[in-house]
Every structure is written in structure tokens, then in C-alpha cells.
Write a structure and sequence with these properties.
alpha/beta; MutS, DNA mismatch repair protein, Chain A, domain 3; 27 strands; globular
């Protein structure tokens, strides 16, 4: 039997034709006052948005699933769809339904994806929303990042580990990859990213180059310093192509593309970024470093701070310039307060000017932009007149944008609405025609009052009323008791229960005049606003430039506030290879301590001559991991320009920070804890340099004791003998590694001290010289609430092992203890027990019935009771 073909209504035919062009997107189809979704899209939308799923043409041949919401609720529902990972095609009516007798023309006006969004409800003000593209070349991999909401555009290229680091740092909301490289992308970078796969031809070098040149309207890319980034250019071209595909053609705010160079920032691999919990933590309620150090006020400052944290400097001059400003602001609290007061009034000028370029700015946002630029003027004066040369540079570089501010002030009302259709957007004094029409509209009330008074006198009807409705406009209402007084020239329009409604020639003329004036006012306002937005385009670059300077100042003010609030000190950064931290603290942990409890600060000293590797032993929970992490975070904070949580710190410029902290399974990728540990450690050993800081925590614990000790020993030896002599902190529970200090001169033993009480232990969390003898693991188990019999058993085994002083005896001793723990039931000197044993051994379980088993058990019980009574 032939399959029944589903019939299509004209509307569904139009819908299906548009849907075919956007198969990967959820299509929001405008029908009258609603955005509708159909079929599978409707099922998906109803679940995500929690809206009712119904049917269109229920019971008919055209029946299909349907879910929709009012068009004015788009800003409420769109963010939910995008945050759920949907690509959303917004299909609008392209003509007025009143102007056509056939089906309304419709088309997709915007494709919103996780990486391409301009809606404020989708974006996080203090976080960039990057769209990335990755291109796989023969030798290198290219990458590009673009935030379409701010216009920031970056490109780079390198080996897979470098691209992986950048992807971890920039954390794009969406990554574009060519379809043939899908597997390659997943292999190198995992499946955590929201990836979208494009056709292979988009990633062609000629096409990419041409796309970039056309966008920037240049003959070459040399001016941006990226002409040699062959793979990076391809990735950048793919991003611009994708913006065109998603109906984003107004991109004048993307004014430049910046190069990211591998050697200009501290290298941190993905494991280090994750281990140090810079932006996010695997623990649900954990506080991250960015949450502690972010004292920025403006959205631009918040976004820049994340980039500074992702890309700490290795340029000594730039680091010291930042420290100089923070130091200066610390000594000038009044100036700091004035800067921060002005910063509070600025808002997000970077995203506002981007909205000008994309044509999505509303009248109220134009006023906000003008007010923000007004607030920048005092910042310019304060910075220029300060006694700090770096602040002077910022102040001198800020542009007052006087012409733009004056133009907005002259054109737009200070109380302008969000929606231009609400009216009263343009100042009356800006346009003589607009002023006349508004006067006419405003005089309407008094005109009607005069008419009412005149007609009441003429007719003698005191209860006359003039009103209007949508059906037949203005009318005069007369109660039935007075209808005999109605003049002959009034035309009756409607009869009510208690009154009659009339119109007059004068009212009709007045209505035409007033309605015409209101329509004309709206038209003029839209036209003048469009002209203003067009004029604002030429100020995109200076406003973006101001946004960058404000962001930098905001970050530095934030560092000054952070240092004052938390008692941070200025680190001394130099070209030496020494790391000397006096009373260092963990910036995050110290904020989480109960009120009044002091953080136990610690000294750390490392160099390449005397004390290159520190072996830190000590019990679990004593704070070994905290000391490792705080050392890395202090170096990181120092090189991003912040003061540090320490009494003093002298830091030889560090180019790479490696951490291998804690066990982290990667079961989803089929890798055990130990495999992950070895991967991360291999990455460290293969990339270590003379300016590296290496932090290793409990290496080797994912395998057997002997394997673990052997691997940890070999790794330590490798780092000691390697020409780089990388500064290393190695926390371990293998006390055998303390022996290394006798053979290797640059390895020193330290331990995190504890105080032993009668049958407990107090963690002092202080790093002191010398190795520790045992780990107090049983004490920790006891504190965790382990059952008493387990604690007792563990202590018994520990004593036996300590007596033997030999790991070779481990198995034998434990076996002996096992035998001791057996219930001494079968004492072969007892004939009765020997007989019972013989009985049990000789029973054929396979042929024994349940009843026979119970009888046998009862017999044994009787024999034992008889013996007990005897």
C-alpha cells in the first residue's frame, strides 16, 4: 500500500522551504503576534522552554506538532534556547500583512548560535563570548577567536598543545571545524567544546585571505602583523564566513585582528589551568582564583582581567609598569576612590558601540553611551594630571569624543525610551518640523475642550462628551434624554443602551490632522535616529580605544583595592633564577577560613644552584598541596601585574608553570587515574625550561607502592640532572624519597610539621626543614569517622611493619596478622571439633537438600551445646 503523503498548507509550504536552508537550527517562525515552532523543533522547544506542546491542524491531513510564544517575549525565551546549546534561526515577516493579499513574505533575519550572540540576556557582562575556529594544517594548527559583541579578534597557530592551552584559556562558546577534521579535533581537544562542523571549502587559504582583505578593506594583512600565520588566517577567514552565514553582515566594529605569540606569555598547559582552579573548579561550591581577585567595576575590566590571568606577562618592563601603577594607587587612596567612582558610571561602552555597528542599539542605550563618555572625561583629567607616568599615558591616550557627545545630546532626549516606537526620542529643538507636529499634537486636548464647550452652548446639552475608539475614531456622545437637541448636521454612528454617538465634519478633519501628525512624528523620529546611528559609525574606533584604556585602568585599580583589602605586598621581579617567598599565603584558602582563624604562612626558597628541588613530606591533610598551589598562584599573580599574598617575594622571571596536582580520572576517555597522571607528567618533562616552575603532588600513587616509588625517584632524578635545572616542589607520601638528598646535592628535604598528642595529631601546617618519618594516615582515617575495628587493625599492621623495617616482609607479616585475626574455632587438639570438621568437609553440597542441611546444622549445634554443658 502506498504511503500517504502529508498535505501542506501554503504556510507550512513556506515554513518547510525556509527550514530546509537551516537544517541544524531551531527555526522561530513569526506568525502574526507569535513565534511558532513546528515538528521536531516544537518538541525540543517545548521541553527547553517549558511551554505547551500542541498541534496545528489537529485531526486533519496537515496535522503537525506546534509550540509558540508571543513575539514580545523573544528576549525571555531566546537566551534559554541558546544556553541549551541550540542554534536559533529567527524568521520574521518581511512585509506588512495589511499590504498583501497573498501569504506574507518571510525570511531569516538572524541566526543566533552559542558563539554568535548580541542579545544582552544571553551574554555575561564580565565574560567574553568567543567564537573560535580551528584549522588543521600539514605541520601546524591555526586558531582564531572573535567576540562579535565587542569586536575583539585574535589569531595564532602552533602545535596541538599550544592550541589546546589557548582553547582552555579563551573558553569559546562555539568552535568551528571542517567536517573532515571532526575526529582529529575530538582526539586532540576532546568533546567538551560546543563544536560546529563546516564544509571543507570554507577552510581554503585563498578564500580565507580574500575574506579578511575584503572585510578590512586592505591590500595586505601586513599592517596587522599576521601575514605569516598561514593556518591562523584560514581559521580567521572561517569565522568571518560563518558570520555571513548567520546573517551578521554589519561588522564595522571588527576593526583589527591581533596576533597571539607563544613566547610572550607564561606557558600553562590545560592541566595546570585546571589544577590551579583559575576560572572554574570541579567542586560545585568551590571559590576560584578569579572570584577572589576580581575587584573590577566595569564589564570591560572584568573581561580584560580574565585575559590577563590567562596570559601572564614575561616582559619585565611591562610587569613592572603595572606594579608601579598599583603601588602609586595604593599610596593615593583618594585618587583611587575618584577613579572607581567614575568607573561605576561607565557601563559597557565596548558592547554599546558594537551595537551601533550592528544596528541593534536602542535610543536609551545611545543616551547611556553619551553618559559613559561624559564620565570618561574626568578620568582623562585625573590620569593625565597624576604623578605616575603610566597613568599619564592612559590619560593622554583617552579621547574625549566631544563631537559624538554633542551630537547625541543635541539629538536625543535624556529620558529616551528603549523602543523608538514609544515616541519622544528626538529633541523637539532638533527639528522644526517635528516641533510643529508635536505642538499640534499637544494642542489637541485644548482644541477638543474648546469644541466641547462651544457645542454644549450651541445645543444646550450640558452632558456632552468627546472621546475616540479604534472603530470609527473621534465621536460626540449624547445621552438619550437629550437626543432631541442634536443638530441636523451631526451624523449618527452608534446607538448604545443609554446614549447615542455622533460624528461631525469638524471632528473628522481634526482626526485626520492629529493622526497624520502622530504618524509623521513617528516617521521623522525613526529617520532622524537612523541618521544619528549612521553618524556614530565613524566613532567606533575611538570609543573602542577608550574602552580598552578604561579596562586597563579598571584592572589596575582593582589590583590596588585587592592589595589593600587583603594585605598583599609588591613582588620584586628580576632576571635571576631565584624564587624567594617570605610568609606566602594561598589567596583563595585564606578567604575561606572561619572568621578570626589566621592562615599559616610559609616560606619557599628555590634556585638552580643550591636548592633546586624541595621534597615535601608530611601527613595527608597537613597542607602540602596548598603550599604547592600557593607558590604557583603567587608567581602567576606577580607576573600578571598584581601584588601577592606574602610578606615579601622575589621572583626570577618564570616562563612556564607546570602542575601535576591530585588524581583526576578521565574514565570517559578510557584513561585510568595513573594514565592521566603519567600523561600530565610526561608533558612536563618534555617541555621543561630553565625558567620553569614545576609542582608535583603525590606522583606515582596511582600504581603499586614499588612502582610508585621507582617512578617518583626517576622523575626527581631526571629533573635534577636535566640541563634546565627547573625549580621544583615535589610533595610526596613516599618517605623513601628523603634518601635522595644524600646523593643529589640540589635536592632538599622539608616537611609540613605536626604535633603528636596522646592518641591524636595536630596539623601545624608549617613547612620546616628535614623529612618526616610517617604519614599519620591512620589519624586522618580516625578523624574521618572510620569504624574503630578498622583503625585498630590498621594500627596493628603498622606496628608489625615498623618492627620489620623491611618492605620485603610486608606480605609475610600481613599474612601472619591475617592468621591471628581468624576465629580460633578449629583447634585440632579437641576431638569434637575435629569430628565436626570431618563432617563438614565430607558433605556433598550438590546433593544435599535444604531439609537435610538444616538437620545437619541442628545436629552440630546439639553436639556443641552438650560439650558446653559438660
Amino acid at each position: 500500500m502506498a504511503k500517504k503523503v502529508k498535505k501542506e498548507t501554503p504556510l507550512m509550504k513556506q515554513y518547510n522551504a525556509i527550514k530546509v536552508k537551516y537544517p541544524d537550527a531551531l527555526l522561530l517562525f513569526r506568525v502574526g503576534d507569535f513565534y511558532e515552532t513546528f515538528g521536531e523543533d516544537a518538541v525540543k522547544a517545548s521541553k527547553i522552554l517549558d511551554i505547551i506542546l500542541t498541534k496545528r491542524g489537529a485531526g486533519s491531513e496537515t496535522e503537525t506538532a506546534l509550540a509558540g510564544f508571543p513575539h514580545h517575549s523573544l528576549n525571555n525565551y531566546l537566551p534559554k534556547l541558546v544556553k541549551a546549546g541550540c542554534r536559533v534561526a529567527i524568521c520574521d515577516q518581511l512585509e506588512d500583512p495589511k499590504q498583501t493579499k497573498t501569504i506574507v513574505k518571510r525570511g531569516v533575519t538572524e541566526l543566533v548560535t552559542p558563539g554568535v550572540a548580541l542579545n544582552d540576556d544571553i551574554l555575561n557582562s564580565k565574560t567574553n563570548n568567543f567564537l573560535a575556529a580551528v584549522d588543521f594544517g600539514a605541520q601546524l594548527i591555526g586558531v582564531a577567536f572573535l567576540d562579535v559583541s565587542t569586536g575583539e579578534f585574535f589569531m595564532s597557530q602552533g602545535q596541538a598543545d599550544y592550541i589546546d592551552k589557548l582553547l582552555q584559556n579563551f573558553r569559546p562558546s562555539e568552535v568551528l571545524v571542517s567536517k573532515p577534521n571532526k575526529q582529529k579535533f575530538n582526539t586532540h581537544f576532546g568533546k567538551d567544546f560546543h563544536a560546529f562542523f563546516l564544509e571543507d571549502w570554507v577552510f581554503q587559504d585563498d578564500y580565507a585571505n580574500e575574506t579578511l582583505l575584503k572585510h578590512f578593506n586592505t591590500k595586505t594583512l601586513k599592517g596587522f602583523g599576521v601575514e605569516d600565520l598561514y593556518e591562523g588566517i584560514i581559521a580567521s577567514g572561517a569565522i568571518l564566513h560563518y558570520l555571513g552565514e548567520t546573517q551578521h553582515h554589519k561588522l564595522q566594529h571588527i576593526t583589527a585582528v591581533k596576533r597571539l605569540n607563544k613566547g610572550e606569555h607564561v606557558w600553562m598547559d590545560r592541566f595546570t589551568i585546571k589544577n590551579l582552579e583559575l576560572y572554574q573548579s570541579t567542586n560545585a561550591n568551590a571559590i576560584t582564583l578569579i572570584q577572589v581577585i576580581d575587584k573590577t567595576i566595569s564589564p570591560m575590566g572584568g573581561r580584560l582581567l580574565k585575559r590577563w590571568l590567562a596570559l601572564p606577562l614575561i616582559n619585565l618592563k611591562q610587569i613592572n609598569q603595572r606594579h608601579d601603577v598599583v603601588s602609586f594607587l595604593n599610596k593615593e587612596p583618594q585618587l583611587l576612590h575618584k577613579f572607581q567612582h567614575q568607573l561605576k558610571q561607565i557601563g559597557d561602552i565596548e558592547r554599546l558601540i558594537s551595537k551601533v555597528a550592528t544596528g541593534k542599539i536602542c535610543p536609551r542605550e545611545v543616551v547611556q553611551l553619551k553618559n559613559a563618555l561624559d564620565a570618561i572625561v574626568p578620568i582623562k583629567s585625573l590620569a593625565s594630571e597624576s604623578k605616575d607616568p603610566s597613568l599619564n599615558l592612559i590619560g593622554d591616550a583617552i579621547e574625549t569624543c566631544e563631537a559624538l557627545r554633542a551630537r547625541i545630546k543635541k539629538t536625543i532626549n535624556e529620558e529616551a525610551p528603549v523602543n523608538i516606537l514609544k515616541g519622544n526620542t528626538i529633541c523637539s529643538d532638533f527639528s522644526s518640523e517635528l516641533k510643529e507636529l508635536r505642538d499640534l499634537s499637544a494642542s489637541g486636548k485644548s482644541y477638543l475642550d474648546n469644541m466641547l464647550e462651544r457645542e454644549s452652548k450651541r445645543t444646550g446639552i450640558t452632558s456632552l462628551k468627546i472621546a475616540s475608539n479604534n472603530v470609527f475614531g473621534y465621536y460626540i456622545e449624547v445621552r438619550h434624554t437629550h437626543k432631541d437637541k442634536v443638530p441636523a448636521d451631526w451624523i449618527r454612528k452608534q446607538t448604545l443602551v443609554s446614549a447615542e454617538r455622533y460624528i461631525t465634519e469638524e471632528l473628522k478633519e481634526y482626526e485626520t490632522k492629529i493622526l497624520g501628525a502622530e504618524e509623521r512624528i513617528l516617521l521623522i523620529e525613526q529617520q532622524l535616529f537612523a541618521e544619528l546611528v549612521n553618524d556614530m559609525m565613524r566613532f567606533i574606533k575611538p570609543v573602542q580605544h577608550n574602552a580598552a584604556l578604561v579596562a586597563e585602568l579598571d584592572c589596575l585599580c582593582g589590583f590596588a583595592q585587592l592589595a589593600t583589602e587583603n594585605h598583599y605586598s609588591r613582588p620584586q621581579i628580576n632576571d635571576d633564577h631565584v624564587l624567594d617567598i617570605k610568609n606566602g599565603r594561598h589567596p583563595v584558602i585564606e578567604k575561606q577560613l572561619p572568621h578570626g582563624e589566621p592562615y599559616i604562612a610559609n616560606d619557599v626558597y628555590l634556585d638552580r644552584e643550591e636548592q633546586q628541588i624541595i621534597m615535601i613530606t608530611g601527613p595527608n591533610m597537613s597542607g602540602k598541596s596548598a603550599i604547592l598551589r600557593q607558590t604557583a598562584l603567587i608567581v602567576l599573580l606577580a607576573q600578571m601585574g598584581s601584588f601577592v599574598p606574602a610578606e615579601a617575594a622575589t621572583i626570577g622571571l618564570t616562563d612556564k608553570i607546570f602542575t601535576r596536582v591530585g588524581a583526576s580520572d578521565n574514565i570517559s576517555m578510557g584513561e585510568s587515574t595513573f594514565m592521566v597522571e603519567m600523561n600530565e607528567t610526561a608533558s612536563i618533562l618534555n617541555n621543561v625550561s630553565d625558567r620553569s616552575l614545576v609542582l608535583l603532588d603525590e606522583i606515582g600513587r596511582g600504581t603499586s607502592t614499588y612502582d610508585g616509588i621507582s617512578i617518583a625517584w626517576a622523575i626527581s632524578e631526571y629533573l635534577h640532572e636535566h640541563p634546565s635545572k627547573a625549580k621544583t616542589l615535589f610533595a610526596t607520601h613516599y618517605h623513601e624519597l628523603n634518601e635522595m638528598s644524600t646523593t643529589f646535592k640540589r635536592i632538599k628535604n622539608f616537611n609540613v610539621s605536626v604535633k603528636e598528642l596522646k592518641d591524636n595529631v595536630l596539623f601545624l601546617r608549617k613547612l620546616v626543614e628535614g623529612g618526616s618519618e610517617h604519614s599519620f594516615g591512620i589519624h586522618v582515617a580516625k578523624m574521618a569517622g572510620m569504624p574503630q575495628q578498622v583503625i585498630h587493625r590498621a594500627n596493628k599492621i603498622l606496628k608489625q611493619l615498623e618492627k620489620s623495617h623491611s618492605s620485603d616482609a610486608l606480605t609475610d607479616k600481613v599474612k601472619t596478622l591475617d592468621n591471628e585475626m581468624q576465629l580460633s574455632f578449629f583447634n585440632l587438639d579437641d576431638p569434637l571439633l575435629e569430628r565436626i570438621r570431618e563432617d563438614i568437609v565430607n558433605i556433598d553440597i550438590n546433593t544435599l537438600t535444604p531439609v537435610e542441611a538444616l538437620m545437619k546444622l541442628n545436629e552440630i549445634k546439639r553436639m556443641l551445646l552438650k560439650k558446653k554443658q559438660a
